[in-house]
Amino acid sequence: MTRPHVLVIVQNLPVPLDRRVWLECRALTEAGFEVSVICPKGEGDPGYEVLEGVHLYKYAPSPQAGGVFGYALEFGYSWLRTAWLSRKVWRRKPFAAMQACNPPDTYWALARLWQRRGARFVFDHHDLNPEVFRSRFGEPTGRGSRAQLAGLYWLEKMTFRTADHVISTNTSYQQIAIDRGGVPKERTSVVRSGPDTSVMRPGRPVPELRRGRKHLAVWLGIMGPQDGVDVVLDIARRTVFEHGRDDVQFAVLGFGDCLEDLRKQCTELGLDDYVDLPGRVGPAEISEYFSTAAVGLSPDPLNPLNDVSTMNKTMEYLAYGLPVVAYRLTENAISAGDCAVYTEPGDAAGFTDELVALLDDPERREDLGKRGRLRAERELDWAPQARTYVAVYDRLLRRSGATEGI
């Protein structure tokens, strides 16, 4: 029997660096689907390879965008390269379904072309692009900024309208697909970016990462203006200079638009000896940092995007048995439950107080860590999410034994 072929399109990150997409690809291949991915190249990546049964087609990424024209150029370039590679994938083997993962919300137009050939379109809703705009630039006041935001809403609407099924990362996103996108609830599913707890689990600590200090506090994520990474430096400054704690090392892991500015700010604040900013790190390095750390930090600022977005780092902290200190955002609290210490959004002083108190309370840290690991295993783990995800394709493509309605 021929295996159904699924094409997955990602523009934001290379695969398998995009952890969610890679887990989805593996779930499909393990369920008997053939999977191809189109994405930008990472450093040193070949244009084509087969990795764990997944066919990876990659193009050279566009130069880093800046301003409206720069972003338009980036999106147009990536769209055309993806469209060309999608023809190459089709010639190798026609695909029965195409999945687009945003940002951006531009691939509905390509989906419509392939829908004419009989392919179904699945929208994997990773980001709320109108909320990204509002969180980065504030509410628009001028004619140009209002037009840009209106354009983002239109692209989102066209994506929802084109999709045969929408996969949301949480119930907040699902409700937006229903209310703002007009998608019938039966054509939506929630697939959280849960950690694979069989892989993400505490390992052997690497004491060298503490730089000779007693404690290590970690932050992980993409460093964009809306992500508030500068808050982590403020918390480090307060910990070291206001609380007089020279026994705490901070590791701020990740990459993005703000990385170089953060490194400069770190130097200006006199924190170079206390904060490591290594840039992009792989799974093995993340595991070492998380297995060594005493606490995970989630001081994500309250804005239209963050309040309804699931923070992957929070769930990954729990998987590694790390106690979490976090701002109380709607979806962050849903993810961590009672396994985190919360402060009100924007209260950096209060956040620092809670962090220091937690570092000085090993019994509480141990209790939170154990309960967090248990929550990750029982409630957040990727395995049940994978079953929901595969079921979407089973029903869409009418595989034997699948339910009919979607």
Could you name the key traits of this structure?
single chain; 406 residues; alpha/beta; 8-stranded mixed β-sheet; 6-stranded parallel β-sheet; 18% strand; globular
**Total strand segments:** 14
Largest beta sheet: strand ordering: 3-4-2-1-5-6-7-8
Distance between the termini: 24 Å
**Radius of gyration from CA coordinates:** 21 Å
Helix share bin: 40-55%
Q: How would you describe the shape?
A: globular
Count of helical regions: 14
Based on secondary structure, the structural category is: alpha/beta
Sketch the major β-sheet: 8 strands, mixed
Spans with pLDDT under 50 lasting ≥5 residues? 401-406
Strand-residue proportion: 15-25%
Mean pLDDT: 93
Oligomer state equals single chain
Order of helices and strands: EHEEEHEHEHHEHEEHEHEHEHEHEHHH
Lay out the secondary structure:
Blueprint: E1 5-10, H1 19-30, E2 34-40, E3 48-51, E4 54-59, H2 67-92, E5 97-101, H3 108-115, E6 120-125, H4 129-137, H5 143-162, E7 165-168, H6 171-179, E8 188-190, E9 215-222, H7 229-242, E10 248-255, H8 259-268, E11 275-279, H9 283-292, E12 295-298, H10 312-319, E13 324-327, H11 330-336, E14 340-343, H12 348-359, H13 362-380, H14 382-396
Parallel strand pairs: 1-2, 1-5, 2-4, 5-6, 6-7, 7-8, 9-10, 9-12, 10-11, 12-13, 13-14
Antiparallel strand pairs: 3-4
Helix pairs in contact: 1-14, 3-5, 4-5, 7-12, 10-13
Walkthrough of the structure:
The protein has helices at about 20-30, 65-90, 110-115, 130-135, 145-160, 170-180, 230-240, 260-270, 285-290, 310-320, 330-335, 350-360, 360-380, 380-395, and strands at about 5-10, 35-40, 50, 55-60, 95-100, 120-125, 165-170, 190, 215-220, 250-255, 275-280, 295-300, 325, 340-345. By secondary structure, the chain is an alpha/beta fold. The strands form two sheets. The protein has an eight-stranded mixed beta sheet with strand order 3-4-2-1-5-6-7-8, sandwiched between helices. α1 (about 20-30) packs across α14. The chain starts with a strand and ends in a 10-residue tail after the last helix. Mean pLDDT is about 95; it is low at about 400-405.
